[in-house]
Amino acid sequence: MARVEKGLGAGGVAVRALAVLLILIGLVLAIGGGWLLALGGSFYYLLAGLGLIASGVMLWRLKLLGAWIYIGVFVLTLLWALWEVGLNGWPLVPRVVAPAILLVLVIAALPVLDSRRGGRLALGGAAVFAVGALIAGFAVAQANRPAQPSAVQTVALAPPPGAVEADTGADWPAYGGTKASRRYSPLDQINRENVGELERVWTYRTGDIPDEKWGAETTPLKVGDTVYLCSARNILIALDARTGEQRWRYDPEVSDEWIPYTAACRGVAYYESGGPTSGGPAAADNARVAVTAPRPVPADATVAAARPATPPPAGAACAARIIEGTLDGRLIAVDARTGRPCAGFGTNGAVDIKVGMGRVIPGMVSMTSAPTIVRGVIVTGHQVLDGQYNEAPSGVIQGFDAVTGEHLWAWDMVRPDLSGRPPEGETWTRGTPNMWTTASADEQLGLVYLPMGNSAADYYSADRSPAENRYATSLVAIDVTTGRPAWHFQTVHKDVWDYDLGSQATLIDYPTAAGTVPALVLPSKQGDLYILDRRTGLSLTPVEERRVPQGGVEPRERTATQPFSRFHTLAKDDLTERDMWGMSPIDQMICRIGFRQAAYDGMYTPPTADQRWIQYPGYNGGSDWGGVAVDPARGWIIANYNDMPNYNRLVPREVANEKGWFPRGDPRAAKGGAEGAGDPQMGVPYAIDVNAGWRMKSTGMLCKQPPYGGIRAIDIRTGRTVWDRPLGTARKNGPFGIPSMLPLTIGTPNNGGSVVTAGGLIFIAAATDDLIRAIDIETGETVWSDALPAGGQAGPMVYEQDGRQYLVIMAGGHHFMETPPGDYVIAYALPER
Fold it and tell me: Would 282 disulfide with which of 4, 73, 347, 472, CB 3.0-4.6 Å?
């Protein structure tokens, strides 16, 4: 062997540098691998670490044996990886890619180690590398295959006359399309054959981008020839449905101090009273309201050629009105034609929903979702900022007259005898579950379906009242004429996982052997989907109580069982150590150690304070506020979902105080992070620290292997999966927050729903790759996409104007999803012929 002892030369220096690198990596793997093995984990990392140390020592001595040792380690790594995960693309990445890069460096060193045979040896090493690359490439290709549809019988869900509110037509008059919330359009001008021709036809910019906490989440309405929407901070806007030109703009002047966790306005409500509005008792309102002059569209916005606006319909002022809830807890009503406040509604067009709640710290009570109007009654819930005070403001549900703003009723679950506002000096019961999301409704039955949240301290239940334990994390049907519950269905007993219901219930007519039954689909954060009789709340598909893990900080308070839907679940199998991920074997090893250190016994692992515990799915798992869509022609549910764990710990009060975890409004409070990451839960023994998605501090990558989100078609008749696929590419995701720009389907976190059309398409943005896409509903294959200028964390909508079909999406981004902020409302259509 030709080897230089003195004056190594550039080649020898490079080999010794590689030797140092292998020894350092080997030491990390050996130490961490020994720790992992002691915790009961995989043996691989310890053995691989020792192999790399041996290889590095030999290479330092410029011994050819060092290269052979590393090649042997790589071959064994390939065999181990295939044994653990098979040809599963993304799980192979941290197991194979980084070792393959090191293999390339070792191969390059062979001519230095043996000048006579180096070339032939390099060819052999290259062959080993090629085998590894071929395996990894095949695996990634498998991971990026289109969804494979299964043979599933379809069943049309066309309802009997009057059973369900008609689906949208030319208009999109409610947040979910209609109050039935199917998110379905019978329009078919844009279809699978021509969707590739879609082009942007107008863009409007709201001019409202918060400096932080951005996340508009807006789904516009379309009624007549006008599009109505709200901006992030509740500015009401009307646009020409043909051109996107602004018709009017009304700013209720919401102060930034009232922004809760996110500056979000998901939508507004449209109401036609059929007559003039006047009179009615005025509710107290201390906030300022004013009509503002239209603001100019930013210079970089593109707007189609203007057409003359259609004259407003005849009728009295506010015969048609737009109603929104604001971040500072007001109901605002403005004339749909002019944007001027409805003088007969409350005080100058505004009603304060906080009356009767007692002291409210700015940001603690906000309305981020569209109100629901049934039989002339505005039914409101509101968001109560999570994790701050156990004695937070009440989650009371209220009803207001849609014409006058008069307070009609209230439902305080702890005080069911109190139908109006509390007597002087009293408040509604504090800390009770709230409804922060959007309700759906059955106008014929007079029922509003409320997806309820949890009590104020999400992760501790010992002091909750019987009424809270009964109604928390339940769908509650409220009789709009009385304000009293008609029935409720609970999806989690004594919820200490923040599994509050975020999705609207979707009304369908469910096919049974005895005929169709008025029903609804109820999605949940833990992934289960339920089919309920919407008249009675009884489940039309099997639900069983199963035993769940016990223990935690309050074992005597824990329920022994939880309800599980046997119709369908979006939840995946329990996590194992093999499901851990990362950029490299080191990252993956660290996550494996974290997995072994945490308490985890599957779904509903109880909260612990002495160690971390894994919650899977996390609080953003399953279905969240985006809800599901239903294709009534095929009888399919379209559900996008998240598939990520949270890595949690209860923190004793004195430790939380030392960390500066004090609630909103306390001058000692430190600036908060992600939701749950240092929430004080003042008033119970523990604060909560949530690592949402279980993110690594070093690289920002998630510890669970991809995919992190998907979209699925489900046959309503059988509950079977038609197809299932990851949703979202890796183009805007990568380590250290650096976009990889890879067009590979990885399945990203997603927030926002979808729209299904009679053209056989699903339109959805939601994912963190900043794309809006059209998916073929039959196959699950993406057939069109467009890059948005900001994150698309909002629900799209579809309408028709003058015979032309439009697709509209709000691109406002989202701080929690780490997508770029924006203020864009973008409309797509086919080219005019």
Answer: 347
The values of phi and psi at residue 72, to 5°, are -65, -40
Q: What is the pLDDT of residue 301?
A: 37
Q: Which helix (H) or strand (E) holds 84?
A: helix 64-85
Assess if residue 617 is contained within a domain: no
Reference 440, options 520, 365, 384, 362; nearest CA is 520
Q: How far apart are CA 65 and CA 130, in angstroms?
A: 21
Residue 87 lies in a domain: yes
Let me know if residue 43 belongs to a domain. yes
DSSP state of 654: H
Strand pairing category for 320-325 and 330-335: antiparallel
Full domain range(s) for residue 91: 9-143
Alpha-carbon distance of 94 to 84, in angstroms, equals: 12
Identity of residue 30:
A
Q: Give the catalytic positions in this structure.
A: 498
In a domain, 57, yes or no: yes
Sheet architecture: strand order including 506-512 = 506-512, 515-523, 528-533, 568-569
Q: What's the pTM value of the predicted model, to 2 decimals?
A: 0.91
Q: What's the Rg (C-alpha) of the chain? A: 29
- Residue 309 to residue 293: CA distance in whole angstroms: 18
CA distances (Å), 807 to each of 450, 753, 765, in order?
Answer: 28, 14, 12
Reported confidence tier of residue 557, pLDDT bands at 50, 70, 90: low
Which residue, among 101, 139, 93, 145, has the nearest Cα to 580 in the 3D structure? 93
- How do residues 244-286 score in pLDDT, each as one tens digit? 999 999 999 999 999 999 999 999 999 998 533 333 322 323 2
Within 10 A of 649 (CB to CB), how many other CB atoms are there? 20
On whether the CB atoms of residues 292 and 312 are closer than 8 A, the answer is no
